[in-house]
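Example 196.
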Amino acid sequence: MKTRLALLFWFVLILSTVLTLAGADAAQRGARPGQSRAPQARPAQTRSVQVRPRGNQGRIPMAPPARSNPAEPRQAEHLPTGHVNDMPHVNHGQWFGHEQPNDVRFRIDQPFAHGRFARFGPSYRYRVTRIDPNLHRFWFRRSFFDVAEWDWPLCADWCWDCGDDFTVYEDPDHAGWYLLYNIHTGVYVHVQYMGV
Ligand SMILES: [Zn+2]
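Predicted structure in complex with zinc ion:
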C-alpha cells in the first residue's frame, strides 16, 4: 500500500511538472510572434506600397551569370507553344537574348569613363525622374544613363515615368555596360552610366 501511494505521489508530481512546463512553453510560443511581428511588419508594409512586378513571374531576377565562352551566341527562349522569343528578356529567372560576349558593338575604349554606378542589383528599384527620347537618355534623380542606340527600339515605348519600375545590373559580359531591366515587361536593354 505504501509503495502504491509513493508511486501515485510521484506520478502526480511528474504529471504536474510536465503540465506546468508545457503551459510555460505554450505561453512563450504565443508571446514570441506577437513580440517580433510588430517591428517586422514595417518593411513588409513599405514593400506593399510598391507595385508588384509583372515580368518574370512577379519576381525581380538575380543578376545574370557571366558567360565563359566569348563566342557564345545569344540564346532565344523556346516557349511550350512553339513560339520563339528572341527579345532580350528574363523569364523564370533566366536571362534570354543577351548578345554574345564578343559582339564588337559593346567594345568601349575606356570602360566606366564616367565612373561606376554602385547601387545595382535586384534590391534597388528605381524611378525614372526624367527621360529625353531624342538623346535616348534617362535620369534617376541626378545620375543619368544613355541607352545603346541599337537597343532603343526595344524600350522606346516603355512607360518611363510610371513608377519605380526599374532595376539595374552590371553587365557581366560587356565591360562598361549596365543592363536596365523593366520589372513589368521583363525586357532589358544596355545602358551606359554617364555620371551625375
Ligand atoms: Zn551585355
